[in-house]
Write a structure and sequence with these properties.
By secondary structure, this protein is mostly helical. The chain has 5 helices and no strands. The chain has one domain. Helix 1 runs parallel beside helix 3, helix 1 packs antiparallel against helix 5 and helix 4 packs across helix 5. The two termini are 17 Å apart.
Length: 120
Amino acid sequence: MAKLDPEFRTTLEAAFKHAVSHLENLEQTSVAATADLGTLRARINKPLARAGIAPDQVIHDLAADVAGGLLGSAGGRFFGWDVRCADDSNSFQQRVSRFIRARGALAWIWAIASQTSARR
């Protein structure tokens, strides 16, 4: 098996750490969101930087931004809420936000792996 690119490995490790932390703290995590939608949108709605940001930093920032928006549920039968915006907007940030809320910890690993492999 080929070795992973060091940057890719670091990014996956960051996602893994956040996923494990989410799972290990489920008993202390509310099953309902503790941050309202406006707060979550305000945190995520950041201008793009002119210079690139390290991928693992993107993961850490995203984890901080969605704090209080991830549901404290790891049940295999929960597939997420269908969240629609009042204006039916379908921006990338809103789709990502819905995806992460719905899929919880596993979304971290999938999202990073799929985006990184797509660049190759």
